[in-house]
Amino acid sequence: MNASKLVRFAGLVLIAAVVAFAQAPSNAPPAAPAQEGPAAGAQGPGGPGGPGRGPGGRPPGGFVRPNPDTSGPVGTWYLDINGARFTMVITNQHPSVMTLTDQAGAVAQIGPVVWKSGPDERHFEFLAHWSDGWQWCAGSIVEGVLAGRCAPKASTQDKPAHLEDYKLHITGWNSTYLDHGLAPRAYDLLLDGEAHATLRIDVAENAPSGFTGRFKIYATEKLGAVGEEVEFDVAVTHWDGTNLTFVRTEPLETQTFTGTAIGATIAGTYTDTSRPGTFKWTGERAQVLGYGFSMGKTEQDRAAWQARTRKQLYLLMMGGNPAPLSTKVTVLASDIPPIASVHMSPDRDDDPAHWPQNYKMTELQFDSTLPNPYGGAPMTRRAHTYLAVPTTPPPAGGKYPVVLAVNGHGGSAWRMMNPDIVWYGDAFARRGYVVLALDISHRPLEDRKAPYMTKPLYDNLLNGDDAAHGNGTHPAIKAAGFDSDWEEDGERAWDAMRALDYVLSLPNVDATRVIVVGHSMGGEEAAVIGALDPRISMSIPASFSPDLGVIYWKGNHPCWRWMNADIREYIDASDLFALIAPRPLIVETGQADSTYSKFPEPFASDMEVLRRTRVAYGGEVGNVIHYMHYDQHRFHVGDVNPTQPTEWGIRVPETIAPTAPNSIDWQVDPRRYATHATLFDAIDEFLDMKPASP
Fold it and tell me: How far is CA 275 from CA 6, 26, 229, 254, 270, in A?
């Protein structure tokens, strides 16, 4: 590293050191020792270590799971069938119990049950006998998660004659398999019929109960997302898997909660020192695949969780993430000069005057076929991209670093390469990267509705995001005669994987230096792509690190939601970032971006998400940067702005965790530390690259 770069990057090195000592409140216990084998607390309360604790008194948490996948139908399942909730219980004892219960308490007997498990097959099939008919369901089970289809109820027990008769979707999770310990746990709560909150519980080795908690009100019935509050660390005074007591201490009041967990639900009462009386609260399990926030996990724990969670998300989001049967790459146009600037955006701050457009572009179309899970003709998928290749010599070693750029709402590959509009694709190409700018768009109207829905999930963007430049609607991945088993973000991630297949096959690219970058919806996709594809070396999601509960109530564009399940039941944004660890991650947010939050300090939820994220990085926490710039919902580099004076260098929050017990000030502290390093300085350092020259 040359002397000038060393000086400019010194701030980031300091941040890494500060972050390493700021992962938890000052009164937080040290990290719990690593556990071997299944979590001891799986025995339940009263085990050898005392109530709610494992052997040796260890808190019952952790992520140890059998490998290879040993999950199957046996266990207690919490299911979503066509938008309705069910509980399924299957035991292997004699006599066996096999029941399916709906929300109203009606019970169906299950049988027969078919389970085929092998290297290439994990097929589950069952027949439910209801009082008003028979219902067949079939699907796949992967690491305790189920996704498949059900037929509507029929008057006979005959199996449907055609696969197309399985019109309803079924998804769910097996608590017997997933809940190996008593933590991590998350619940989505309703307090006194008014406030919506998330309660998270995780291991705290030296806490008297063995657990700690975090509690956030993200919306209220009266105010919606405007009712958001900051997150509180709460004292979990008792948790044994059934009985829970925790205390939330606010500056002017204290609330004491007691409750009982039954299955996937929890309910109880609480008192509040600011008002007389006792109040009810209820809740349901959430973020059941989540990483949690305990610092006692090892690198091996993290790697095992990541491998398992990717497989689970592949099933839920991507139909299992099948490899393409074929991919045809068509050159639509070649030797395209860079788009000339007419009037640069006033927020562009990557010093474009000193970095000329020394690159040429090729317009490409990818046509892929996918295996049909129902045995018919292959499914199809089309993607559209622009490939920018530098005309300057490559770095030492003869290969260029790679950037996969993905657009936000209303954007396109063309707009990302336009120096005057969504300019970050152009910015990376100027700096000597091979840039593959990928169109991200939306499904056509007919693909936005699941069988249980009375109207489409959303009804705008009917022509896609930028049809004039090739980014029209993207038809869902689906078999003929069926609606899609995929979620929209899963389809986008699959497109990105195919784009990576192509660009990494080029002889002049460096497969060890691959960045994904995006803004807004593109930031969402950058997080998903970085989480699900380990080939990504570094992720830069800009303007996406929200609390999913807040944006659910705020009314953000709903294309982030799943249609065949509730994403919030399975993961949170911090879990996507945890899947990226320990690879470098730069999360850009605006100091005043109200897109995801109406809170007076809208960056508070970003800071909460990043606090959980850093735990997943452990000793490599220096690989995470929260770049909190001065601006609103925009992308920034922190270099010279030729249009107007703007702040130079990456800025990061000065305080990233509570500095004292029960402190919440860190979440609303607007002070930022100036690193004197630009985004490109940080990338050069993280990926060990010699700085490029204009």
Answer: 57, 30, 19, 10, 11
Contact 191, 281 (CB under 8 A): yes
pLDDT tier at 66, thresholds 50, 70, 90: low
CA distances from residue 261 to 42, 78, 267 in whole angstroms, order as listed = 15, 14, 7
**3-state SS string over 581-624?**
CCCCEEEEEECCCCCCCCCCCCCHHHHHHHHHHHHHHHHHHHHE
Contact by Cβ (8 Å): 22, 14 = no
Give dist(CA 207, CA 185) in Å, integer. Answer: 17
Is there a contact between 466 and 442 (Cβ–Cβ < 8 Å)?
no
- Can you tell me the distance from the alpha carbon of 670 to that of 675, in angstroms, rounded to the nearest whole number? 16
CB-CB contact of 1 with 9 (8 Å): yes
CB 104 within 8 A of CB 111: no
Q: What is residue 501's three-state secondary structure?
A: helix
Tokens of 410: 């209303």
Q: Is 153 exposed, middle or buried (0-12, 13-18, 19+ CB in 10 A)?
A: middle
What are the start-end ranges of the E strands in 132-184? 133-142, 145-150, 168-174
Round to whole Å and give the CA distance between 44 and 54: 9
> What does the alpha-carbon distance between residue 531 and residue 525 come to, in Å, rounded to a whole number?
10
Instruction: Return the ∠ at Cα 477 (arms to 473 and 483), rounded to 5°.
Output: 100
Q: How far apart are CA 446 and CA 456, in angstroms?
A: 8
Place of tokens 């009266």: 222
Task: Give the CA radius of gyration of the chain.
Answer: 25
CA–CA gap between residue 613 and residue 581 (Å, rounded): 9
Give backbone dihedrals phi and psi of 524, rounded to 5 degrees, phi first.
-55, -50
Tens digits of per-residue pLDDT, 436-471? 999 999 999 999 999 999 999 999 999 999 999 999
Phi-psi region of 190 (alpha: psi -120 to 50; beta: other; left: phi over 0): beta
Residue 627 identity: Y
Distance between CA atoms of 674 and 628, rounded to whole angstroms? 10
Cα distances (angstroms) measured from residue 361 to each of 159, 384, 436, 667: 54, 13, 9, 44
Sign of dihedral through CA atoms 19, 21, 26, 28?
positive
- If you write DSSP's letter for every residue of 342-388 in order, what string do you get? SS--TT--S-GGGS---EEEEEEEEEEEE--TTSSSPEEEEEEEEEE
Separation in Å, CA 643 to CA 346, 348, 352? 5, 8, 10
Q: Which of 186, 358, 211 is nearest to 266 (CA)?
A: 186
**Residue 301 CA, distance from chain mean position:** 19
pLDDT digits (tens, 9 = 90+) for 656-684: 999 998 899 999 999 999 998 999 999 99
- Three-state SS sequence of 525-568: HHHHHHHHCCCCCEEEEECCCCCHHHHHHHCCCHHHCCCCCCHH
What is the SS3 assignment for 447? helix
What is the SS3 assignment for 633?
coil
**CA dist., res. 37 & res. 63, Å (int):** 9
Q: Determine phi and psi for 132, rounding to 5 degrees.
A: -115, 20
Look at residue 524 and give its three-state secondary structure.
helix
Distance, CA of 384 to CA of 495 (rounded, Å): 9
- Compute CA distances 416 → 231, 435, 681, whole Å: 36, 10, 21
DSSP state at residue 42: G
Whether the predicted model's global pTM rises above the 0.85 cut: yes
